[in-house]
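So, can you check these tokens?
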Amino acid sequence: MAVAARVVYLFENLLFSTPIFMPTVFLLHCCGESLRNSLLFKIVAALMGIYIVMLTVAQFTTVFYYVTPDNQFIRGSLWALWLVPLVVIMILNIIAVIRRRKKLSKKHLIALLVYLVPMTVAIIVHMFYSVELFVVFGMTLLALMMFGLILSDNMKKYARQQQEIAHQRASVMVLQMRPHFIYNTMMTIYYLCKQDADKAQQVTLDFTEYLRKNFSAIASEDTVPFADELKHTQAYLSVEQAQHEDNLFVEFDTPHMRFRAAPCGKRRQARYGH
């Protein structure tokens, strides 16, 4: 049972070092700094290496800690020395956060300091007194902080993506409705009002249908029935035929219409954006 307890304490101490190391990586990531070229990361990695070496030594000696046959955890004479690398890492992280405060968002700055400062104090106290409860609380605080930051960043990323999609749809609409096409259509309707009022009304209806379909495409995120897309195309071509009269002839051969198509995209850009 003592051997099993030692294994448990070994993995517990390895896991305990993780929330000490993570803030360094997170800080450098937020500041856009490369881990490979960061002096802070190299120092922290070296201190972590020292901690792991001392943890390995602890499995064969009693200078840092040991477990009695009745599963009692006893601190060794060099227990405080064993935690020194972790304390130094935490202090370096605090200094690094303060020095990089202008590169960090207010949210990230507060979150890192809220974790680092109390956790550093808890580890220093833990060097001389048993305050495992506060250390566990600090680790839980880090987990919640990381989860909150990741969730917040993902929500902002999603909002940005939705804005980009909206802008792309607006760009597609602009490509679909070239200014010269609109101007030519309005002039065609203007002259038809005197020459052929009935035809002017029909062109106005076709042009209105075309515009309505375009605006509907912007708001749509799903595919649409091909029959609706065909009506959109027919409305566009009817307007073009009114402008070019006998120079444009169109035949529709669409025996299969029971499927859906994308309301916007490269296909429609190629069709309307000439």
